[in-house]
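Below is the data:
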Amino acid sequence: MKSISYIVLSLFLLIVGGCITEFVPHTDEDPDLLVVEGLITDQPEAYTVRLSRSMPLGKAATIKPLKGCTISITDDLGNTYHLSESSTAGTYLTDKATFRGVVGRKYTLHINTNNSTSTRHTYESMPMELRAVPAIDSLYYEKVIIQEKTEDTAPEDGCQVYLNTHDSQEKCKFYRWDYVETWKFQLPYFVPNQTCWISSNSNEINIKNTSVLSVDKVTRYPLKFISNETDRLDVRYSILVNQYSLNEDEFTYWEKLQNISEDIGGLYDIIPSTIPGNMLCVEDPAEQVLGYFSVSARTSKRIYIDENFRGLVNLYRECPADTVAYGAPLEGLNVYVWVIVENQEEGWEVTTYTKGCADCTVRGTTTKPDFWTDYK
């Protein structure tokens, strides 16, 4: 009897599982909204504005770049600076030789979609003041014990990067940080391209509000945790942190985005189109425009991490595929088989089917970054 009940229950679950279909709720949201991403600072560089179109709810999150637009930035002194579209579709750049943000000035972004959309619309940002930002006081790290050594397990370490900053003039109350990670890695095999570097931009939102504190000071802000599940800490790691000053409206914008990114994501959670930005459609002020045109001074600080960490993952333990006699012909197999270790004296070599095991440029570049210094 129990076995029959078990079979019936199994069949029921199989039928129910096979009938699951995706539910996409109906909304009044325009599925084709303009998305604006832009940032100008006081640093001598080309500033970037990216334009794209949003995807309907329930569709895959793919980028739809918006090409062929006319973009300019004006300041409160009446100057106009035009942006040119780069080779990357939907990405527009300023000329660093003629334009650089100045603290205290107000800047407005202007966008004309021309023939890029079914209707020609113009968009403008609110005038945004380029606010000064204090220097980062200190950037440091502490080793974190993920797992102590036991009879059955090896010890494992991670790394937590912290930041301290303050504004003695009490003017900067809302902070945002982003960063660029760069790390050196080496393949554990004797191959021509054995050593490479990788760079990666931050994908988290890091913000802090000090207006509710008695002093304008940020202490031990946990900026970045580096686990032992990557090879970032294996040879040498560097992180460059950028600090920005926000007004309260922009802080609220980033705070809401942060809540979305950290939420599990239920059916009735807040969605990005409900977050007001600072862009407006001139012809139709009721049209929703996503994204934000950010304006801020920027200060930066870099640290290197050389310490040894325990329990780091070995990304190449599955690399060896076979051992063959040294100099054995590999004709016809060179598309699929790469030599990763040679031992001419003992007359053998090891092969792999994974190119990344034999060539570090699959993941990174052999060109050392200009800023890089080596102590290890």
Summary: The radius of gyration is 27 Å. Helices lie at 2-18, 248-262. The first helix runs from residue 2 to 18. The longest strand covers residues 174-186.
